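Same chain as my last thread, 135 residues:
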Amino acid sequence: MARTVPRTDVLITLMGAPHESDLLTSTLRLTQAVLDRGASVQIWACGYATLLTQRALGDSKPRNLAAWSTDYPSAGRVVRRMLAAHPGALYWYACRFCSDDRGAFAHIPEVPVRAPARYAEHVAAAAKTLHAGVM
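reply #2:
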């Protein structure tokens, strides 16, 4: 049985390399601000953004030599925490084509992988659609 796409106030399509700019940080801050106002959000990760929720990244980034004892969360852990804090209001999806093309096969369990043909359903289920990153 096919999963239905939940209605949301905003769909953010996150595209592009996640660590070459402030794209990821800006998207996460925007998402949190929208959620704080009581709205619902779905994120569709496409392109290299599909690498953000890989299980292989673990919970922490590699240690920082300048702050050896500080634990910096990985993008996957940040996404997992946000999803847990906003059940029924935040959804994160990864594009199957983009994931396969980049060898990103093992996403965290909270992130379903969807065929790109299903993207139109996500757009239709959102009141507003934003694109963040490379077009």
